[in-house]
Specification:
Layout (H helix, E strand, L loop, with lengths): L3 H24 L3 H24 L5 H20 L4 H35 L3 H16 L1 H13 L9 E6 L3 H14 L6 E7 L1 H13 L6 E6 L12 H5 L5 H4 L1 H4 L4 H4 L5 E5 L3 E3 L16 E3 L10 H4 L5 H6 L11 E5 H7 L1 H11 L11 H7 L4 E3 L5 E2 L9 H6 L2 E3 L16 H5 L7 H5 L4
Parallel strand pairs: 1-2, 1-4, 2-3, 6-8, 9-10
Antiparallel strand pairs: 4-7, 5-10, 6-7
Helix pairs in contact: 1-2, 1-3, 2-3, 5-8, 16-17
Length: 445
Amino acid sequence: MLSPNSVTRQLSDQISLAKAFVVIAKESNNLQFAWELSAQIRNSQVLLSSAATRRVPLTTRESDTAIRDMALLLFQGQQLHYDSATMIMKLKAKIQALEEQMSSVTEKSSKYGQIAAEEVPKGLYCIGIRLTTEWFRNLSLQRKIKERMQMEAKLKDNSLNHFCVFSDNIVATSVVINSTSISSKNPDRVVFHIVTDEINYAAMTAWFGTNQFKGVTVEVQKFEDFKWLNASYVPVLKQLQFRNPKYLSMLNHLRFYIPEVFPALKKIVFLDDDVVVQKDLSALFSIDLNGNVNGAVETCMETFHRYHKYLNYSHPLIREHFDPDACGWAFGMNVFDLVEWRKRNVTSIYHYWQEKNVDRTLWKLGTLPPGLLTFYGLTEPLDPTWHVLGLGYTNVDPHLIEKGAVLHFNGNSKPWLKIGMEKYKPLWEKFVDYSHPLLQQCNFH
């Protein structure tokens, strides 16, 4: 009973029961008791959050007062002799009504949020068109950049720090590279590998071929050139026509084929295009992953973001193979040991789960659920300050932002969109050169 896990579990169980009593108290118009319970629930949640943040289990000494105070309130609730059967019926009816209301609101919110998030700003579209035009018109530029790429020995030099970004957004990718170069102590040792699609290849190549980033080496490829990328090898290609393109674009799923994309590399840091780098990242390449393939920041604060949130545990395949309370982690800033990846044939694990999920019964959408399955037991937790999430959908602790090496604008409110969160936009915008002639011509602001 005195083990750290038991203390945490006891607090969690008390919170669950107290929440039920809050509803019952409100139904019975006992607002004072409901308020007292809610206040104690908050106190207990603060304790759990604090323990999760510092990654040290709760001790009986620091939790004793909270557990005792909550126990007294719960005992008081039991002495009120609520009619249990009636309350259960009321609760069920209330829960059903709330679920229907939440389902409707969530569906509308998701739909409108998605429409806004997928909007391509006119300025960004203009930049792509102008760069593409310049690329095809200027043959000497094409020749110069292609010659430089062919001669670039750095692209395969494993003594350097290699990063990859898979994106069709020129300005966002430019911010990732610019912020990395400014934050880097030795930018000449940084190599960025960009993979885009056929439509954006010319514009990306022209932009990164004509702009300098403090000595950072930049390579641009398009995934259509990868001969191994075909439906017979890549199961997700067969499913593209049936799914939401936001979640199933090939650029999104290339993260599961990094060893094939970069066959000469041994270690690489994967960055999403909606991040900003504000610290030197060279230390990531010397982190010991202890035989694991994926180095990532865990996201399981309290009970949130554990495996059961992302996967369907009513399916026997999921239930039999994965702990529902296993800690989730984030894509967006990941260190990959490609030697270990190839040795363990991790891509085949991804293929196995994709093929099992053809009917979408294991998970619905996205790349994180198959990532959690693919890298289960192969992920090394990183210090949380390496990757701070939430700047695209929620409020983030300013101290975390200040300490964070990589800030992630995950969520629909991207900083380049009108719906971006205003208070976080400056963190991204300071790495955009708005004085650049092309950005001014396209009125990008």
